């Protein structure tokens, strides 16, 4: 079905000089360049702006399945679960084909356009046997979204960390969306490690400094709680399934059944046992199709951090001092007071 082209509804704004200076100090990656978008002031890499309208108008197919989240909410776990259920538990393919090939990451280009330019300018530094592989990978990562998705066969599985307001407004009326959310304190800890892991951030500050960026809406795709609320407000739509990381990890079987119901699939006892095993943290850590370790050979990661890291709900307690804990509690309360959204308690 033809969908009408809509102008992108949000304005972009520069960050303040003070914010730009702080970013220069806090990240080792010299090309961090962030702007704000729309009335909520979502923080975006500047490169997003070029494709914002294309993404907003991306034709949606009824067979599409989007896995959406703020980063570090359990996206990879949710993607793998959704893909396996939708593909009749085809574990063989899941183990053979990296999740990045099964699910294009909608907005990945915005983090890698500048990085690609530098890598290409210095391609002689890359081992000759690896150059072609790297060039192909960079090409896929930075390919215009519209082009990349148009050529995909149906059904398409798509990963995004964009807030719902950036996606085609017809998305939930047309396709299926599974959104996963997580306690903001664990998101902050996990995002801190993620920002240290990827060279396009190479975060150099302390956790406390990261937490301040996160809660003051200065980190990409924040304000986090607005991101979650946008999806929460759609949770009763029959094409939207809203999950919490805390529930997925506490009671995986119930979550598997919820996702199966949502996708109209039945799970046998044997499949259930295998799914639980395949999706366990220990197996994920060692599963090359989901642990992102393959990106290391492209020089995209620093050496002391990993993508599949701790896999625990409530781990933030090891990072927050008393003052930060109280601050966080008040921040969450203030930001959720106009909604019935509550994160499941963690110990
Ligand atoms: P931690 O950094 O707290 O360990 P995303 O996929 O959205 O980037 O989320 C990554 C977070 O989910 C990381 O959290 C990661 O360790 C955790 N995770 C990934 N796979 C998991 C699994 N199978 N079980 C539990 N947690 C998992």
UniProtKB/TrEMBL annotation:
One of its GO terms (molecular function) is sulfotransferase activity. The keyword Lipoprotein does not apply. Keywords: Transferase. It holds the Pfam family Sulfotransfer_1. InterPro entries: P-loop_NTPase, Sulfotransferase_dom. Residues 62-339 form the Sulfotransferase domain. Belongs to the sulfotransferase 1 family. This is Estrogen sulfotransferase-like.
């Amino acid at each position: 079905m033809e969908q009408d082209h809509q102008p992108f509804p949000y304005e972009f704004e520069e960050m303040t000089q003070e914010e730009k200076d702080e970013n220069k100090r806090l990240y080792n990656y010299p090309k961090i360049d962030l702007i704000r978008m729309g009335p909520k002031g979502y923080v975006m890499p500047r490169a997003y702006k070029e494709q914002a309208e294309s993404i907003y108008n991306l034709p949606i197919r009824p067979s599409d399945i989007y896995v959406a989240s703020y980063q570090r909410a359990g996206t990879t776990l949710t993607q793998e679960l959704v893909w396996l259920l939708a593909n009749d538990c085809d574990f063989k393919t899941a183990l053979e084909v990296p999740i990045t090939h099964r699910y294009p990451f909608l907005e990945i280009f915005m983090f890698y356009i500048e990085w690609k330019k530098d890598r290409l300018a210095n391609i002689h530094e890359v081992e000759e046997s690896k150059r072609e592989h790297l060039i192909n990978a960079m090409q896929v990562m930075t390919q215009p979204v519209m082009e990349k998705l148009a050529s995909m066969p149906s059904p398409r599985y798509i990963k995004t960390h964009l807030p719902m307001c950036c996606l085609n407004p017809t998305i939930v009326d047309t396709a299926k969306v599974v959104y996963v959310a997580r306690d903001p304190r664990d998101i902050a800890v996990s995002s801190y490690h993620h920002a240290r892991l990827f060279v396009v951030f190479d975060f150099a500050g302390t956790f406390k400094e990261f937490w301040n960026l996160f809660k003051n809406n200065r980190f990409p795709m924040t304000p986090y709680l607005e991101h979650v609320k946008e999806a929460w407000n759609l949770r009763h739509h029959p094409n939207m399934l809203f999950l919490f990381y805390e529930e997925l990890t506490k009671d995986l079987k119930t979550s598997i059944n919820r996702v199966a119901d949502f996708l109209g699939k039945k799970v046998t006892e044997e499949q259930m046992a295998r799914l639980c095993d395949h999706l366990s943290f220990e197996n994920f850590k060692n599963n090359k199709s989901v642990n992102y370790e393959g990106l290391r050979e492209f020089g995209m990661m620093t050496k002391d951090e990993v993508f599949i890291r701790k896999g625990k709900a409530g781990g933030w307690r090891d990072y927050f001092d008393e003052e930060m804990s109280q601050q966080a509690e008040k921040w969450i309360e203030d930001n959720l007071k106009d909604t019935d959204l509550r994160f499941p308690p963690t110990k």
